[in-house]
Specification:
With 238 residues, the chain is α/β, with parallel strands linked by helices. Helices cover 50% and strands 13% of the residues. It is built from ten helices and eight strands.
């Protein structure tokens, strides 16, 4: 998961990406020579890594956290502590959404939270709804209450910062394949690092990810992989 996040971020324009992850995940990512990797001792993220992560974040422009993280109790606590100590724009995805769901005081307006429907429920305690009109209302309401940008992933992505709301209709059913959400998170993080505001970054990321997925699906159909989506990003950017 962090491997996919990082490659997508590079494809969208980041100059450097550092993967900080438990040893096995970091070592897998290190096989790609484009990535800088920092292995954390142990099998999962814990509070003992906070000092290392804080040092690594110095000089960085944005963070993506949560992909492939797991939900060990100590990992969830580490996410909250780390976010409280680092004042950077961040994409909160996957398991990190469950961490902040239990501690909403850690949420800042420089965050983009990228849930699917189940994670939206975990975050808000409410169903997003089925129809587009209902989902637009649900996301806008939640974003407004939490003062954050939310990108609800789905057949039609819904993005809101509580004031502005948008729907993205790019993408296709083959993108239910595992890993495409990690690609989206990487694109979001890259755009934040390049200076876009959270709402603009989320809208652009949803569009780029969807169009890249549509291009990949034309060739691959049900054989589409997340890495196929990443490879189409340069065409979309162009």
């Amino acid at each position: 998961a962090p491997f996919l996040v990082s490659l997508a971020a590079l494809r969208v324009g980041c100059d450097l990406v550092t993967v900080a992850a438990p040893e096995r995940a970091a070592n897998i990512a290190a096989k790609n020579l484009n990535l800088i990797t920092y292995p954390l001792k142990g099998d999962f993220l814990s509070v003992k890594h906070i000092g290392e992560l804080k040092k690594l974040s110095m000089g960085k422009d944005a963070i993506v956290i949560g992909n492939g993280l797991g939900r060990d109790k100590e990992t969830m606590e580490a996410v909250i502590q780390f976010l409280s100590k680092v004042d950077l724009p961040a994409v909160i995805d996957a398991d990190a959404i469950h961490a902040i769901a239990g501690n909403k005081k850690s949420i800042r307006n420089t965050f983009i939270i990228t849930p699917h429907a189940g994670e939206f429920y975990a975050l808000t305690g409410k169903q997003a709804g089925i129809g587009l009109k209902e989902r637009l209302k649900s996301v806008k309401g939640a974003a407004g209450r939490m003062k954050v940008t939310i990108l609800l992933k789905g057949h039609i992505d819904v993005i809101s910062d509580g004031t502005k709301t948008a729907a993205n209709k790019t993408g296709n059913p083959f993108m239910t394949k595992g890993g495409t959400g990690d690609v989206l998170a990487g694109i979001c993080g890259s755009l934040l690092a390049q200076g876009l505001k959270p709402f603009d970054a989320a809208c652009a990321a949803a569009y780029i990810n969807g169009v890249a997925g549509d291009l990949a699906a034309k060739e691959k159909k049900q054989s589409l992989l997340a890495t196929d989506v990443i490879e189409k990003i340069p065409i979309v950017i162009k």
